[in-house]
Design brief:
The complex is a heterodimer of chains A (266) and B (532).
Chain A: E1 18-29, E2 32-43, E3 47-51, H1 58-64, E4 75-83, E5 86-87, H2 95-101, E6 102-105, H3 116-126, H4 132-145, H5 149-152, H6 165-178, E7 183-187, H7 195-208, E8 213-217, H8 221-227, E9 230-235, E10 238-244, H9 245-250, H10 255-261
Parallel strand pairs in A: 3-8, 3-9, 6-7, 7-8
Antiparallel strand pairs in A: 1-2, 1-4, 4-5, 9-10
Helix pairs in contact in A: 3-4, 3-6, 4-6, 6-7
Chain B: H1 2-6, H2 9-38, E1 47-51, E2 56-65, E3 74-78, H3 82-85, E4 89-92, E5 97-101, E6 107-111, E7 116-125, H4 137-183, H5 188-219, E8 223-227, E9 233-237, E10 241-245, H6 252-268, E11 271-272, E12 277-278, H7 281-312, H8 317-329, H9 334-357, H10 372-396, H11 400-408, H12 413-442, H13 445-448, H14 477-487, H15 491-527
Antiparallel strand pairs in B: 1-2, 1-5, 2-3, 3-4, 6-7, 6-10, 7-8, 8-9, 11-12
Helix pairs in contact in B: 2-15, 4-5, 7-10, 7-12, 8-10, 9-10, 10-12, 11-12, 12-15, 14-15
Classes of the chains: A alpha/beta (266), B alpha+beta (532).
The structure holds adenosine-5'-triphosphate and magnesium ion.
Chain lengths: 266, 532
């Protein structure tokens, strides 16, 4: 599939084989508009990074993709977001189904106060999976994918609260992977971690993109440059520029982008 | 000094002082209750006082009053023998006491009626030979008393059976009344059968009743004669003696045994002598059962309300108004709740139930009068705000991230509530529950008009179908305190009972809360190291 875009401004890149296509998305919190006419496509099995100064709407955009903004009473959204053929923004979309296809990892690691094992299989359990063998197998697979298996395989029954911060964040990734989503959203997954744990997670993201589409929000320019294939720069609720990461960082087309990545504001 | 002030150390001192004050208040309260209550069961020595005018009295010294420049204090004696003297206590001028002795053969009797008897054993008349034993009068009395008690127990058992028979007859009579109420003509035959059966039972009742009367007469012929300090004689039926001891001759071990048997009696027996003596079992039972029924209603109601308010209702004016209303309910005087309970539950729901379920018993009310169910429901109205507030606090303390994590994994709101939110809110809910239980167990005013009585004829749970009788009136420790302490004719004698009842109530509340606290702490440990 190829997204047809009429008058293509330079910052609206046509993407081959996108998994998510956002068109003319406007989002309001009450009266305040937080996202303005966003049009962007997320490429399949690639890592896409959202960057931009604080408060520009990165998290808001990310949470549109799994309808987590529904929790905010005052929110109002217009425009279209398509996950393959599914219109995410329509009123009759099955939100449960959507959230199973689009998993999320949060900025503050938030494992449930349960055992490591129960954390990983939580999504499966609520989906109705009962069979112990399936749960065990999936737990092992997701922990392995999250590069946590070796560290916790002997203590699956212990409380997840006893893990280190980096381990907890990887557990949260494993928890998201366990339900086999197509897309994984990550909202500043490393902001609470030290450089070593961050490197761990970055390696992991690199490995994940073989199977999953990853969308990551980050404040760290180096990180965006390291892990992502595509980068979108948002400013004050607008999508300023979207392009291949190496192009964004070497030859940005917009003045604002350049200022931001070189640290002249933000 | 200035530096300390700047560092805010005075605040630390203030809060430290506040804590100390609180602890002190609790300690003093408990201390007073314990000192006054716990000593009561210890058999105190009987002092034989000879006064200057030659009169004598025998009693336990219960109080002393210092008089300046006098050798001996004024003394308060518990002299007992209410049937002879008309009063239990006497103050004696210390200067008028010529001699104070502790004769080892002074006897203390605990009786079924008229309180304690203090005196000396004079003679013993046993009605039947099988009560007889060798030795002097005292050891013969000691040997006979347990046997008499045993026989008395048999009589009580027979009387219990009699009550059962009576209940059966009553239920037959009600069945007949119901049939008559329905259609007398159509059920003529059935009514007839019922009446036959009733007559049979009535005959058996007569027979057993006569047998009991014979046994009792026989039993009551065994008597002992006692002298009081002045030499007046008093004949006492052995069956009326609950305990007989010679405290001045008792060893510490014997006294300890006596103490234990009194405590056991307190916990397991029925009250005697308009509640100032004997046990508190029915009141303990009533209190605990009432609190349990209250919890069955208040806990789910409060938790569900709080969950709705916090998790589902859209935060707006209406919700805020509801919340304010609920919070303010906690400040409404409890007697107002009592009135609401009386009007709504007893007269409203209860009377309607009577018309629907027991029309044949009217105009005698069944549910249309105070009972343990209505009292418990009234209390649950009273305590539900506490549960709501605590549960809401618990729910609001759960980080949003956890709910979002669950929702983002494809859980519904309800699944999130059940699997993530509720387990974490449990400690908060239990805290609310503890407060509710403590409040409910100590509340008296609303109960007085919704079903509590000073002496209930039967427990709300017994062996008669349908076993749980929620319509019955019941006894309650808090009301017991009020009744014994302020409504009994002999307040001075009842005082220790008031302390003991208070102590028991405090202990019960503490046991209930401690269990809940332990439970809560165990739950907390599971969530303790959570970082958010
Ligand atoms: N629940 C909400 N209600 C009202 N306004 C909101 C809400 N959440 C976000 N906003 C507003 O929307 C704008 C975008 O917020 P968002 O959280 O998306 O920013 P962000 O780019 O993720 O910032 P940061 O990098 O600091 O996380 C901000 O101005 C913010 O104040
Ligand atoms: Mg953000």
């Amino acid at each position: 599939m190829r997204i047809q875009q009429s008058a293509q401004p330079p910052y609206r890149l046509a993407v081959d084989d996108p998994i998510i296509a956002i068109r003319n998305l406007d989002l309001y919190y009450g009266e305040a508009q937080a996202l303005k006419d966003i049009t962007v496509a997320i490429p399949r099995r690639q890592v896409t990074a959202f960057i931009g100064p604080s408060g520009c709407g990165k998290s808001t955009l990310l949470r549109c993709l799994n309808r987590l903004n529904d929790l905010v009473d005052s929110v109002r959204i217009t425009g279209s977001i398509k996950l393959e053929a599914m219109e995410i923004n329509s009123g009759d979309v099955d939100v449960i189904e959507l959230r199973r296809r689009v998993g999320m990892v949060f900025q503050a690691y938030n494992p449930f106060p349960k055992s490591i094992y129960e954390n990983v299989v939580y999504g499966l359990r609520i989906a109705g999976v009962r069979k112990r063998s399936i749960l065990d197998e999936e737990a092992r697979r997701s922990l392995q994918s999250a590069a946590l298996w070796e560290e916790v395989k002997d203590r699956l029954g212990e409380s997840a609260m006893a893990l280190s911060g980096g381990q907890m964040q990887r557990l949260c990734i494993a928890r998201a992977i366990a339900v086999n989503p197509e897309v994984i959203l990550m909202d500043e997954p490393c902001s609470a971690l030290d450089p070593i744990a961050t490197a761990h997670i970055e390696d992991l993201i690199d490995a994940l993109k073989k199977t999953y589409t990853v969308v990551i929000v980050t404040h760290n320019m180096q990180q965006a440059a390291r892990v992502s294939d595509y980068t979108a720069f948002l400013y004050l609720g607008e999508m300023i520029e979207f392009n291949k990461t190496d192009l964004i960082f070497t030859q940005p087309e917009r003045r604002q982008t350049q200022d931001y990545i070189t640290g002249r504001f933000g | 000094m200035k530096k300390r002030w700047r560092q805010g150390e005075h605040y630390v001192w203030f809060s430290g002082a506040a804590v100390c004050l609180t602890l002190l208040m609790v300690a003093v309260l408990l201390g007073v209750v314990m000192v006054n209550g716990l000593g009561y069961f210890w058999p105190s020595d009987l002092a034989l006082a000879t006064l200057d005018d030659g009169s004598r009295l025998l009693g336990a010294i219960t109080n002393a009053e210092r008089v300046p420049d006098r050798e001996r204090d004024n003394l308060q004696f518990k002299v007992g023998n209410r049937d002879l003297y008309g009063e239990d206590f006497r103050w004696i001028d210390g200067a008028a006491i010529a001699d104070l002795a502790y004769p080892s053969n002074a006897v203390l009797l605990e009786r079924v009626e008229f309180g304690n008897f203090h005196g000396f054993l004079k003679s013993l008349a046993l009605a039947s030979d099988d009560l007889a034993a060798p030795g002097d009068d005292w050891s013969r009395l000691m040997a006979a008393l347990p046997l008499v008690a045993q026989r008395q127990a048999t009589v009580d058992e027979m009387q219990g059976h009699l009550a059962e028979l009576n209940g059966e007859i009553e239920s037959l009579r009600r069945q007949a009344a119901r049939l008559r109420f329905d259609d007398e003509r159509a059920h003529a035959e059935a009514i007839h059968t019922l009446q036959d059966r009733m007559e049979q039972l009535a005959q058996r009742f007569e027979g057993e009743n006569a047998a009991i009367a014979r046994t009792v007469t026989e039993l009551r012929r065994s008597r002992a004669t006692f002298r009081d300090a002045e030499g007046r004689e008093k004949e006492i039926v052995l069956a009326d003696i609950v305990r007989a001891v010679r405290p001045n001759a008792m060893s510490v071990w014997a006294k300890t045994g006596f103490y234990a048997s009194k405590v056991l009696e307190l916990l397991t027996d029925e009250p005697r002598e308009s509640n100032t003596e004997g046990g508190l079992f029915p009141a303990i039972f009533g209190t605990v059962m009432m609190v349990m029924i209250m919890s069955i209603f208040a806990l789910p109601m409060g938790v569900v309300t709080a969950v709705y308010l916090r998790e589902y209702a859209r935060e707006g004016l209406l919700v805020r108004l509801v919340r304010i209303a609920v919070y303010n309910l906690a400040g409404v005087p409890s007697i107002v709740f009592g009135v609401v309970g009386l009007g709504f539950f007893v007269y409203g729901v209860g009377s309607a139930l009577d018309v629907l379920l027991f029309p044949e018993r009217l105009p005698t009310p069944t549910f249309g009068t105070g009972g343990i169910l209505w009292a418990s429901l009234t209390l649950s109205l009273l305590t539900v705000p506490v549960v709501i507030v605590a549960t809401e606090e618990g729910l609001s303390a759960i980080p949003r991230g956890l709910r979002e994590a669950s929702l983002a994994l494809g859980a519904t709101r309800f699944q999130t509530l059940l699997r993530v939110v509720m387990p974490m809110a449990v400690p908060g809910i239990i805290t609310g529950f503890i407060l509710a239980v403590a409040r409910a167990a100590g509340e008296v005013a609303p109960l007085m008009i919704t079903g509590v009585v000073k002496l209930a004829p039967a427990l709300p749970i017994d062996g008669n179908f349908p076993y749980v009788h929620l319509e019955r009136k019941f006894m309650h420790l808090g009301f017991h305190i009020y009744d014994v302490g302020f409504q009994s004719p002999n307040v001075e004698a009842a005082k220790p009972m008031v302390y003991i009842t208070t102590l028991l109530l405090v202990v019960i509340v503490m046991v209930l809360s401690l269990t809940a606290v332990v439970l809560r702490n165990q739950m907390r440990k599971r969530f303790q190291s959570a970082t958010f």
